[in-house]
Design a protein that fits this description.
Blueprint: E1 6-10, H1 22-29, E2 35-42, E3 48-50, H2 71-75, H3 95-104, E4 110-115, H4 125-136, E5 141-146, H5 149-158, E6 163-168, H6 173-181, E7 186-190, H7 191-194, E8 208-211, H8 216-225, E9 229-232, H9 235-246
Parallel strand pairs: 1-2, 1-9, 2-4, 4-5, 5-6, 6-7, 7-8, 8-9
Antiparallel strand pairs: 2-3
InterPro entries: GP_PDE_dom (IPR030395), PLC-like_Pdiesterase_TIM-brl (IPR017946)
GO molecular function: phosphoric diester hydrolase activity
Protein name: Glycerophosphodiester phosphodiesterase
């Protein structure tokens, strides 16, 4: 039986709308991806916000670290003018706004939530995220991922039955050891490294997802190998190629 490779919309559909904003997530949902991927940071006054970078410089008209800004300062920024065509007036969503959006959309797939503690320390953010999810009591599934293995260990301790993935450039023996010990369930590896490790593509690999797959040839290779999933910025293209290689039916 062919494994259906999951399509994960990277920061929403960031190829067509400003990443990690509500328009990007709405655009992604039009293609019914298996998962929505997004990132969470925390402001200086304790609010969880949805943004990828530690700084606001790349994706807004502001400058500075998220950790040093208040929510009011974050919400005053325009998060749409960096994108062509510009989407003036788009703001960085709070985690609450994002979860409310998913509820309004009747989202029923999987949320892939990246805890962004690999460069900035946010003590206690893991519990805050889990508590916030519990508050909304979603019917959809949540998969937690991070480059920071300590964050993954904390999530496992706080919520033993959580689905957890380690973000890595390449899965070293120590990464596989932690997976075997149950610290996390899945490994999410860089496609650039996987391409240099062809044995990964020999047979279906049920625990491996790969990021960020935007090249058509790479997509075809992943789909033909039956990897568990791919994180992509090109949701429409991935949907088209999966239909061609693996058929229409979802898992």
């Amino acid at each position: 039986m062919t494994i259906k490779t999951q399509i994960i919309a990277h920061r929403g559909y960031r190829a067509v709308a400003p990443e990690n904003t509500l328009p990007a997530f709405e655009a992604a949902l039009a293609y019914q991806p298996d998962m929505l991927e997004m990132d969470v940071h925390r402001t200086i006054d304790g609010h969880l916000v949805v943004i990828h970078d530690e700084k606001v410089d790349r994706t807004t008209n502001g400058t500075g670290f998220v950790k040093d800004m208040t929510l009011a300062e974050i919400k005053s920024l325009d998060a749409g003018i960096y994108k062509e065509p510009k989407m003036v007036g788009v703001t960085i969503p709070t985690f609450d706004e994002f979860l409310t959006f998913l509820r309004a959309q009747n989202f029923d797939q999987t949320l892939m939530l990246e805890i962004k503690t690999d460069h900035v320390s946010y003590p206690g953010i893991e519990k805050e995220i889990l508590d916030k999810i519990d508050t909304y009591q979603p019917e959809y599934h949540v998969l937690y991922q991070s480059f920071n293995l300590n964050s993954l260990k904390i999530v496992r301790q706080l919520q033993p039955k959580a689905d957890i993935a380690a973000l890595v450039y390449w899965a070293t023996p120590s990464v596989y050891w932690l997976k075997w010990r149950g610290v996390f369930d899945y490994i999410h590896s860089d496609i650039r490294i996987l391409k240099n490790k062809p044995r990964i593509f020999w047979r279906p690999n049920v625990h491996m997802r790969t990021w960020t797959v935007d090249n058509e040839a790479d997509m075809r290779r992943v789909f033909k190998a039956g990897l568990r999933g791919m994180i992509t910025n090109k949701v429409a293209l991935a949907t088209k190629i999966r239909r061609e290689i693996q058929g229409d039916e979802h898992d």
